[in-house]
Amino acid sequence: MTAQTSTEFNAAKATAGACRLCGAGLKHSLVDLGKSPLCETFLDARQIDMMEPFFPLHVLVCDSCWLVQLKEYVAADGIFTEHYPYFSSYSTSWVEHARRYCEMITERRGLTAESFVVEIACNDGYLLQHFPPLGVTNILGVEPTANTAEVAKGKGIPVTVDFFGVALAQRIEAEKGKADLILGNNVLAHVPDLNDFVGGAKALLKRGGIITFEFPHLQNLIEQNQFDTIYHEHFCYFSAIAIEAIAKKHGLVFFDVEEIPTHGGSLRVFLAHEGEEDVSQAVRDLIAREERLGYTTLELYAAYEEQVKATKRKLLAFLIEAKNAGKRVVGYGAPGKGNTLLNYCGIGPDFIDFTVDRNPHKHGRFTPGTHIPVLPVEALDAARPDYVLILPWNLRKEIVAQMRHIGQWGGKFVVPIPEATVIDPEAAQ
User: Using 50, 70 and 90 to split pLDDT, how confident is the model at 90?
Assistant: First the structure.
């Protein structure tokens, strides 16, 4: 009998059915998106005729702590590999968001050259690069994907290539001491062992220091039908209610929150050692709002799957009508969320001729499962399509501004979420 690799179906964990935060049994479904390949496993031409692994995308909700989560069908080290193709710096708006964060947090916390700042999941250095010009030079990135870490190192950023948890936190503390600021943008959802991760952050945090995490807000996922943000990299989907439960379990206080527009609507949460900060009115108001909207009742979660099915039908109806009318449709972007959308809706080259992306690491490859070619952005101008389906719809303003010239030949944009909507580039602001 051969040992099971981390990318194979993890049947033992998938059927265990225990909440990864509180350990309660998972009995209630949010949405079942069927089976899909890993969203960042883009294929080369030699692979498209080979067998391709598909894994379930079934999201459950814990009726004890209200954490929404995937079962662990695939281990993290089978997803975040040395060939991981996502580089944060290819989104100019995301890099600008990171720069503004660094300015804000430096001023808010009075960070100096003596402060120790640790970013978990630093990727290619898109954020940490902004601290040294502000005088905050004692920085460290933690990043499990070696290829993105090398880019960060090339920017002069020290990076530890590893997964973060209690063991690594203890190692960092022994070498560099405790941190004044620990931050993680869009990493909390990527963690299968949530308690080890948050426990590590707690262990590394200096007295008087703070932790900030950013992640897409569950309320937007549900209210805006953002089902395409569900993929195997995202083990958890967070409400403020769940964050409060996480903080309490680990001796932390969830003391402040900001609602920010990134990734279709995110939360930036602020945590500190218990007893060190007073809980803001913003936290109290957000938790009260979620409770009022039903995020501690099963009825709200039970209604979601039908919303998702309706969104799928509307998008397919638009594409079928467009193709029957002889229109040419191409995609813009090759994000992870796009691959969830394409696979769940069954959209392949029969609907979309190709998609384009600014990331050269994806050029000449094919989308997982649906096998749509990924080309450089210049291919879009050569094709002069009638419709451009924006797959990273959370960046639609940036993309429309960059590609507004498609209106010169009558081209229009299509945004799939929360429902298929056509945007005239000539009229868009």
Answer: low
Q: Are 296 and 338 found together in one domain?
A: no
- Give per-residue pLDDT as tens, 60-89: 999 999 999 998 766 555 554 455 445 555
Query: 268, 302, 336 — which closes off a domain?
Result: 302
Segment holding 231, helix H or strand E: none
One domain for residues 253 and 368? no
Rounded (10°) CA dihedral 321, 222, 15, 338? 40
> What is the Cα–Cα distance from 147 to 26, expressed in whole angstroms?
36
Instruction: Report the alpha-carbon distance of residue 310 to residue 185 in Å, rounded.
Output: 31
Q: How many domains does the chain have?
A: 2
Are 166 and 184 in contact by the 8 Å Cβ rule? The answer is no
Provide the residue range defining the domain that includes 147. 88-302
d(CA 251, CA 235): 23
Q: What is the distance between the alpha carbons of residues 388 and 366, in angstroms, rounded to a whole number?
A: 18
Edge to edge, what strands does the sheet with 159-160 contain? 159-160, 139-142, 117-120, 179-185, 205-216, 266-273, 252-260
Q: Give this prediction's pTM.
A: 0.88
What residues contact 143, with CB distance under 8 A and at least 6 apart?
Answer: 121, 122, 123, 149, 152, 159, 160, 161
Q: What are phi and psi of 419, to 5 degrees?
A: -155, 160
Separation CA 149–CA 102 (nearest Å): 20
SS3 content of the chain, % helix, strand, coil (to 5): 40, 20, 40
pLDDT bin (cut points 50, 70, 90) of residue 284 is very high
What's the mean per-residue pLDDT of the chain?
Answer: 91
**For position 191, which CATH number holds?**
3.40.50.150
